[in-house]
Specification:
Radius of gyration: 25 Å
Helix content: 40-55%
Number of strands: 9
Shape: elongated
Structural class: alpha+beta
Order of helices and strands: EEEEEEEHHEEHHHHHHHHHH
Length: about 300
């Protein structure tokens, strides 16, 4: 939750932060996966379609590069603990497949809330008495500025051990999944959301970034501007959908946010050299010829 919260003490691993009521925070996620613990107060967390109010004692995890928004509902004091990629497997000596069994967020019990934003299962945990006692002590260490580098590392390992001891493995798998996943959150976000928007500006807004900030970040992952990349994707998948002959042409036009069917027709003529109906008819004729050849070949047996 960088750039926006007042920070009393920053450490390599742990930090303690404060936010005033009504403060709105947003970002693209920390450089390292970060567990956020609401020690006092409450926040509203928004990530894609997932929205949840996290009260005192709640824990959630921000993945690297993952867009989020946070609004402080009640004056906030929060602890954060950072985890580098691969650290979870190294610290627990457990293979990734054991840390991430298949599970569904729905139906999880035990004081949890969860939801899905894109393909990311969001799980918000509630700290039990033992974990709460540990976190209160960690907060005191940070306020007193006695949390040395070595102590920070020891406390991170203790924190992870308490997590593993406090929750069922299938629940913890969802919470800690970003520490194990090898995929890139920004690429996954772009590739799962570009069809849902009409332009780069809307895609940037969905990522909770300014247009210029989104374009700059996009350039770090792709070899072309986002407008050109989105156009190439549209060229590829519009033709694919037409040839599949599953959706009506009007539904295809709506799916890719064409302003009108006439605009959709012009797009097809410019990029494919034919109207949508002709493209679909050509595919129908090709399919009929293939069926005829198959029938004729079968009659020779």
């Amino acid at each position: 939750m960088r750039h926006s919260m007042k920070q009393n003490e920053t450490c390599d691993v742990w930090s303690i932060r404060h936010g005033e009521k009504g403060k709105k925070l947003s970002g693209e996620g920390p450089e390292e996966a970060t567990v956020v613990i609401v020690e006092r107060g409450s926040v509203e967390l928004v990530a894609g379609r997932f929205r949840c109010v996290v009260q005192t004692g709640g824990l959630f995890l921000l993945a690297p590069g993952e867009p989020y928004q946070v609004r402080v509902v009640e004056r906030l004091c929060a602890l954060t603990c950072r985890f580098a990629p691969g650290m979870l497997v190294r610290m627990t000596d457990l293979p990734a497949e054991e840390l991430m069994p298949e599970f569904r967020v729905e139906g999880i019990s035990g004081g949890l809330s969860g939801g899905i934003a894109g393909d990311r299962e969001w799980v918000v945990l509630e700290a039990g008495p033992l974990l709460s006692l540990f976190l209160a002590q960690m907060g005191q260490y940070l306020n007193m500025r006695i949390a040395t580098g070595r102590l920070q590392e020891i406390k991170r390992q203790e924190f992870l051990c308490l997590l593993l001891a406090s929750y069922r493995r299938e629940v913890l798998a969802g919470f800690l999944r970003p520490l194990v996943d090898q995929g890139d959150p920004f690429r996954e976000f772009v590739e799962k959301n570009w069809r849902k928007v009409r332009n780069v500006e809307e895609l940037a807004a969905r990522a909770h970034l300014s247009t210029s900030g989104f374009i700059k970040k996009f350039g770090k992952y792709y070899d072309e501007p986002p407008y050109q990349w989105m156009l190439r994707q549209k060229e590829k998948y519009v033709l694919q959908d037409i040839r599949a002959r599953i959706l009506p042409l009007k539904d295809i036009a709506d799916r890719y946010h064409f302003a009108s069917y006439a605009h959709f027709g012009n797009f097809c003529r410019i990029h494919y050299g034919a109207s949508p109906r002709k493209l679909m008819a050509v595919k129908k004729m090709e399919k009929k010829r293939e069926e005829t050849r198959f029938t004729e070949a079968g009659s020779l047996v």
